[in-house]
């Protein structure tokens, strides 16, 4: 739920409509409709890691900015790939 709300907050802060953000994602090579984005923001659709990365990039932020604070590992040896794998587990339940 945190990620869904974070996507919506970031999108609104940038003044983007769902249609505009979905179009940005599609232009980046990850086809997305505004309906899919709407369902993602309402947590009625899973946000897989591929979607998360592209949505974050389209918003101009790192994917970790859309994740709950507790998901980020504190240890410097953890890579972003480790973080994404852990986050995917959290997102998918």
From TrEMBL:
Highest taxon of the source?
Answer: Bacteria
Q: Which SUPFAM superfamilies match?
A: lambda repressor-like DNA-binding domains
Q: Which Pfam families match?
A: HTH_3
Residue ranges of the HTH cro/C1-type domain? 7-66
Q: What CDD domains does the record tag this protein with?
A: HTH_XRE
Family matches, as InterPro entries: Cro/C1-type_HTH, Lambda_DNA-bd_dom_sf
Q: Which PROSITE patterns match?
A: HTH_CROC1
What this protein is called in its record is: HTH cro/C1-type domain-containing protein
- Record organism: Streptomyces lividans TK24
């Amino acid at each position: 739920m945190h990620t869904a709300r974070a996507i919506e907050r970031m999108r609104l802060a940038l003044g983007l409509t769902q249609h505009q953000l979905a179009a940005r994602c599609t232009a980046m090579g990850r086809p997305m409709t505004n309906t899919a984005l709407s369902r993602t923001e309402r947590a009625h659709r899973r946000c897989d890691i591929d979607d998360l990365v592209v949505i974050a990039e389209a918003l101009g932020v790192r994917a970790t900015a859309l994740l709950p604070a507790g998901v980020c590992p504190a240890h410097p040896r953890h890579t972003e790939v480790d973080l994404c794998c852990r986050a995917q587990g959290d997102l998918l339940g």
